[in-house]
Task: structure prediction
Amino acid sequence: MKRKIISILQYFLFFAIGVFLVWWSIHKMDETQWENCKAALRSARYILFIPVFLILAISHISRAIRWKILMKPMGYEPKLRNTFFAVMIGYLANLAIPRLGEVLKCTILGKYEKVPPDKLVGTIVIERAVDVVSLGIVFIIAVVSQASIIGVYAKETITKYFLSGSTQVIVIKIFLLLVFLAGAYFLLKFIFRKYGHHKFINKLKNIFKGVAIGLASVKNMKNKKGFIFHSILIWLCYVGGTYLGFFATLGTENLPFAAAFPVLAFASIGMIITPGGIGLYPLLIMEVMKLYNISEGDGTANGYLQWSAQFLIILVVGFTSLILLPYYNKKTTHA
Result:
């Protein structure tokens, strides 16, 4: 009960931050910039939502296929349909409470495909690790290809959101984290060995074993090329969708393709920090676009359109998946 209350309070805190950022990004614009933003939204090419939806849908399908590849070495081959539904429902849940979707999609797939959820946790850890590396690569491409434009902004933003505080404090934090992880590892090892016969401890031990098996799926993966291909395809879709989004507003349609990398890189920070990127995602897009001499009004309008496209596809496809998942599995059971 206490954990649920903390999760709810945490969600409302981050949601409140997102709402504040929406208000702040609009409030700090002067009258001319606000009129420019409204004009950009009125003249926007909303028809481009369709191809952007398709590109993002491909990325989600690719993510579902990649997840299946991770499960195969463990001896599980769930239907792609169920895997895709679970992925989209997970995204939908993340809009409500960050990280809830990761747990929920494991539970959902475990229910409909008889895959132990504890083993799926390891595959989620792998997916997130690959996503972090992929985002890092996007950052590197952005900085290398657009160094003269976004170099200083990259340093300031990363320092602000991830490396706040003095270098000494950062080193101490990292050291303490490593000490904590090492201590937790040896403590759990002792508890499992000494009290492994207890029901609760044995259950906890099995969960950790399941996670370890999930993590080991990379080592035993036969379709490594497929895993790499879909990992690249997912992020190519993100870059392509971002670039296509530039054409949605007249003031941003002349941005170069290379600009999609820094825009995506910094906007992704917004997705990490606030639920669904509310407030921060479009704000960071606008800030990056200003470096390309795009007006604040045009940048804000385009940022909200790009965020809306992602939000709507998760909302629509997520709810559709929630409805279709039990229907299709009921149909399969009675077939």
